[in-house]
Amino acid sequence: MKRMMQSAATAGPIAWMTAAAAEAQGVRGEGYHDHMWAGGHGAGHGFLWLGLAIIFWIAVVVLAGVALRWLIGSGVLGVERNDAMRILKERFARGEIDAEEFSQRRKALED
């Protein structure tokens, strides 16, 4: 007990109270044995939480990518997908429609 109290006194009052409580419960020896993590070796829960944290951040990144893709595709971010106008320009470039029909359809699409 004297040895434990001497080492605890150098660490501070909290360590002294912990050492005194351990002594009162019948725990003998130097240092902190059998406290918190199954003898100080851990119970393996750290790997569980690490895995869950990794899964969480992967899910956050994936959901952010899906949301960004949805926002771009719907035109909310100012990037509009005007497939009809693109198709009309392609048909005009290939010669499938003439200039008069192109201008009529373009005006209809713009309205």
TrEMBL record:
Keywords: Membrane, Transmembrane, Transmembrane helix. The chain crosses the membrane at residues 48-72. Residues 83-109 form the SHOCT domain. Pfam families: SHOCT. InterPro entries: SHOCT. This is SHOCT domain-containing protein. It comes from Sulfitobacter sabulilitoris.
